[in-house]
Specification:
Shape: elongated
Distance between the termini: 77 Å
CATH topology of the largest domain: Alpha-Beta Plaits
CATH architecture of the largest domain: 2-Layer Sandwich
Helix content: 40-55%
Largest sheet: 4 strands, antiparallel
CATH class of the largest domain: Alpha Beta
Structural class: alpha+beta
Strand content: 25-35%
Length: 259
């Protein structure tokens, strides 16, 4: 003889069915993806951006699983789901070049991400995977790209400031020190002053390679970092970022140079 009414057993069965159904998304895992969002408030990401991304990837002969347009509050993104991490990195580089022709003034943020492999029919009934916290997932893995070009340019800009101070302290008159990328252009009005300045700069900074240019009243010294000095700057930038991440997270990080 049953102790409970039939409807009570039915409630238990229905609850178990719903429990199993909404647990299923956790078994599908996550897929590597690339997420595109706007860098500037005046630029909006919409379905046209999704179509543009699909066209760009097909033109580059890159296979992708899907490209979806999503909105969360006021934020809109396009997420491209991919089969493996190697394709993920390739897609990121391709979209970076296509969407941000000027790396110094990017319009869009192209970031690595992970998306759920949960089928669409489960998503339609709001069945989503349970995302574990960092303590349960075993920490976090960082992939950091160090902008080597910017690191070298900052070093050259710092040297330019040091040279201005050095020449001023040595009472060497010059027509200005201008930086053009990784090159310093130092102007002089006479050859004697230029020679004195060259000797002082060589003694103060062994990392610079100097050459003379110009004639008449437009005499110049062109200064560039030596290949060895550039490598030292890049190595230091990598070590500095790795050290910073270790101090913050205490975890293992992967750092890739962005030359």
């Amino acid at each position: 003889m049953n102790r409970y009414a039939l409807w009570q057993y039915l409630i238990i069965v229905v609850a178990l069915i719903f429990g199993v159904l909404y647990t299923v998304p956790n078994f599908f895992g996550e897929a590597p993806a690339v997420q595109v969002s706007s860098q500037k408030p005046t630029i909006k990401v919409d379905t046209a951006m999704r179509d543009r991304i699909e066209t760009t990837l097909r033109g580059a002969n890159i296979t992708f699983d899907s490209a979806t347009f999503e909105t969360v509050g006021l934020n809109a993104t396009v997420r491209v789901r991919l089969a493996d991490p190697d394709t993920q990195l390739k897609v990121k580089d391709t979209l970076e070049h296509a969407l941000n022709p000027d790396p110094k003034d990017p319009t869009y943020v192209v970031a690595l991400n992970l998306v759920s492999r949960t089928p669409g029919w489960l998503k339609q009934i709001r069945a989503q995977p349970m995302y574990l916290g960092l303590d349960l997932r075993g920490g976090v893995h960082f992939l950091l790209q160090v902008n080597m070009k910017e690191a070298v340019e900052k070093r050259v800009e710092s040297i330019a400031g040091d040279l201005r101070t050095l020449l001023r302290d040595k009472s060497i008159r010059h027509g200005g020190i201008n930086r053009n990328g990784n090159t310093l252009d130092i102007r002089f009005r006479d050859d004697e002053t230029r020679k004195r300045a060259e000797d002082i700069i060589k003694d103060a900074n062994r990392d610079l390679v100097l050459r003379e240019e110009g004639e008449g009243a437009d005499l110049r010294v062109i200064a560039n970092l030596s290949p060895g000095a550039i490598k030292n700057v890049q190595d230091y930038a990598l070590k500095q970022n790795i050290t910073t991440l270790h101090n913050i997270t205490g975890s293992t990080n992967s750092v890739s140079p962005n030359r």
